[in-house]
Specification:
heterodimer, A: alpha/beta, Rossmann fold, 4-stranded antiparallel beta sheet, B: alpha/beta, 9-stranded mixed beta sheet, 19 strands, binds magnesium ion
């Protein structure tokens, strides 16, 4: 599904390397968790994979479903099935949530050569998935993320994911800022999407999330590189010991 | 005003009439002496083929909404193409509105050249919009001037749509006088989608009686050069006017709006909101002046203008002015200019929305606040659609 090989990324307008030879392989059906200290490059990795401007790839490659990911426009990546749940979802005043979701879904379908959905078909899907995630009709009537609380924004990201049904979901700290109940609702939403055809990369600081979304692999990202990989027990170990070992090693 | 010595080609065509010199404060952004770069002789009779008129009328995005339609072709009233109201609360008379001497160049030009116009009188509450459509057909370069009058009787209300469209090279000079009686309400929507070769000059003079409510919206998108003046005079207390506008400009288009809001009496409210989008080398200008006379206590007047620049070569200039002679008033203004927020754009694209559509969504979102001035739902929706498809449409035209 996703193959990142020896990826080096620097900031486009600054002489500063953020990713330092990062390698990560994710197969369909797998759930990978990425943990690591603040500033280690987790969000940068997710942005680079999603196609955000401002970064320059200076070495290595990233392939998605066998194709060169870094060559594609952000919307092409999305249509091909990549989805990033943002650590800080963006508020867009004046753009209605429902219209945004509908245009997004139909743009993707169009790009894939599928039939676009009619408004009633689309509404049915959104209503059903919003209900499952405890998202009110009132929230759907507002502009994209505008006036949403931190937790509501995270929930809205998962709703978008549930509607767009991507094949590779990258969740960047979707658990931060969620209360215990919301965490469970969001985790259920994510688990509902787990399937043999779908892969997930879950970036988190807390082992707690991984009790709900049980990963197949856990990676430690430090100073722009994966420095250790293991099973779900690695997360428990990190929770107990912290990252001192890795930051020292890398330094 | 007559500062020039050498006459421009346009001036020679105008029987020696002079165009405004850029040294005049109001005209410093729009130098008609260079922008009108070829003669547009007035009083040229052009015969239009009915099928051309019919084809051009189809470009009017509000055609299906209007119930009564008054059509002007090349400056002349076209009865056959019009659908006049069957009497009742709307009275349409073919008549050129009176116009005294002024020192306003656009008005002076109109006084010299306007041949025809209508007087629309609204005597009670009308739900269905009344439309005046101006069509210019492709013919030799010329000046087309019209002058209309709209009168809304005390307590009456209406929606009046004003459309300007055409093809070929011509200069429109459009003057309209609007008077709202006591407690009258007018929703005025103007759409300037002239030919890309055209020049559009306009002047609207609006007077509000006591408790009158005006909602005025202008979408400017067609002509290569556009200059629109409007004056709003508060003549009766507690009147309320909202003047909004939006530019959607590309290529080398130039649009300049000069608004003067004159609060002469107490307790009136005025709002101006302009949301202007410029792509490529387009230039947008907004000059808004709010005058609060000594007697106009408790005036509430606010003005804002915002430019959205889609390219590094686009430009937006705003000149807000407040002239306040009363002491118990709330007035303010704000102007901003910026480009598309890249975080917004990336977020939309990361959900699969291609760049042109994503930008279009952000453009529609940006202008939305101005479009909200339009009370009539169908009119607002049609014009919003125009804004949503504008970027993709004009890029295709260029290719
Ligand atoms: N656009 C940018 N401009 C300047 N610095 C940047 C930019 N993007 C990333 N960085 C820097 O790169 C480093 C990695 O940032 P990144 O956001 O990827 O970290 P992270 O692992 O997601 O951290 P956190 O756990 O706090 O979310 C940080 O030092 C950050 O300041
Ligand atoms: Mg981060």
């Amino acid at each position: 599904m996703l193959e990142v090989k020896d990826l080096y990324v620097k900031l486009a307008d600054e002489d500063r390397t953020i990713l330092n030879g990062l390698t990560l392989k994710v197969k369909a059906g797998e759930v990978h968790a990425i943990m690591g200290p603040n500033g280690s490059g987790k969000s940068t990795l997710s942005y680079v994979l999603a196609g955000r401007e401002g970064y320059e790839v200076t070495g290595g490659e990233a392939r998605f479903k066998g194709e060169d990911l870094l060559d594609m426009a952000p919307d092409q990546r999305a249509a091909k099935g990549l989805f990033l749940a943002f650590q800080y979802p963006i508020e867009i005043p004046g753009v209605a949530t429902m219209q945004f979701l509908k245009v997004a879904l139909n743009s993707q379908r169009k790009a894939r050569g599928e039939k676009e959905l009619t408004t009633p078909e689309f509404m049915r899907i959104v209503k059903e998935r919003a209900a499952r995630l405890g998202i009110s009709q009132d929230m759907l009537k507002r502009a994209v993320n505008v006036g949403f609380s931190g937790g509501e924004k995270k929930r809205a990201e998962i709703l978008q994911m549930a509607v767009l049904e991507p094949s590779l979901c990258i969740l960047d700290e979707t658990d931060s800022g969620l209360d215990i109940d919301a965490l469970r609702v969001v985790a259920d939403g994510v688990n509902a999407l787990r399937s043999p055809e779908r892969a997930m990369v879950v970036i988190t600081h807390y082992q707690r999330l991984l009790d709900y979304i049980v990963p197949d692999f856990v990676h430690v990202l430090s100073q722009g590189r994966i420095v250790k990989s293991g099973g779900k027990e690695l997360a428990l170990e990190l929770e107990a010991k912290g990252y001192a070992e890795f930051t020292r090693e890398a330094a | 005003m007559n500062v020039a010595v050498n006459k421009t080609p346009a001036e020679l065509a105008y029987d020696g009439m002079l165009l405004p010199h850029p040294r005049l404060e109001d005209w410093k952004w729009t130098n008609l002496r260079t922008l009108i770069d070829r003669p547009y002789p007035p009083r040229i009779a052009v015969t239009a083929l009915p099928r051309d008129v019919e084809r051009l009328l189809k470009r009017d995005p509000l055609a299906m909404i209007a119930h009564a339609r008054i059509v002007f072709v090349n400056g002349l009233f076209d009865k056959a193409a019009s659908a006049l109201p069957a009497g009742g609360a709307v009275k349409v008379t073919q008549q050129l509105a009176p116009l005294d001497n002024t020192d306003e160049p656009v008005l002076e030009m109109n006084r010299a050249f306007a041949g025809e116009g209508v007087h629309i009188e609204i005597t009670s509450n009308i739900d269905a919009p009344v439309e005046i459509v101006h069509v210019a057909t492709d013919a030799e370069a010329r000046t087309i001037a019209t002058r209309h009058r709209i009168t809304i009787a005390d307590g009456a209300s209406a929606t009046v749509l004003e459309i300007h469209l055409g093809e070929g090279d011509y200069l429109t000079n459009s003057v309209i006088d609007v008077a709202l009686g006591a407690g009258a309400k007018l929703d005025r929507v103007k759409l300037e989608i002239e030919s890309r070769d055209a020049i559009h000059l306009a002047h609207a003079r609006i007077t509000l009686g006591r408790d009158a409510v005006l909602r005025d919206f202008t979408l400017t998108s067609g002509a290569r050069v556009n200059r629109q003046n409007a004056t709003v005079n508060f003549a009766g207390e507690k009147a309320d006017a909202k003047i909004a506008g939006s530019y959607l400009l590309s290529g080398k288009q130039h649009a300049d709006t000069r608004l003067v809001i004159d609060h002469q009496v107490p307790k009136c409210t005025s709002r101006e909101i302009f949301k202007c989008v410029m792509d490529e080398k387009a230039r947008g200008i907004f000059q808004g002046k709010v005058i609060v006379q000594r007697d106009a206590q408790k005036t509430d007047g606010k003005q804002s203008s915002h430019g959205l620049l889609l390219s590094e070569t686009a430009e937006f200039d705003a000149k807000p002015e407040l002239e306040i002679y009363a002491d118990d008033v709330v007035c303010g203004h704000g102007a901003t200019s910026g480009d598309i927020d890249h975080n917004h754009l990336f977020y939309l694209r990361s959900r699969g929305i291609p760049e042109p559509e994503a930008k279009s969504m952000l453009i529609a979102a940006f202008v939305g606040e101005a479009f909200d001035t339009i009370s009539h739902d169908d009119v607002r929706e049609q014009l919003t659609r125009f804004a949503e498809t504008w970027l993709v449409d004009h890029k295709e035209t260029v290719r």
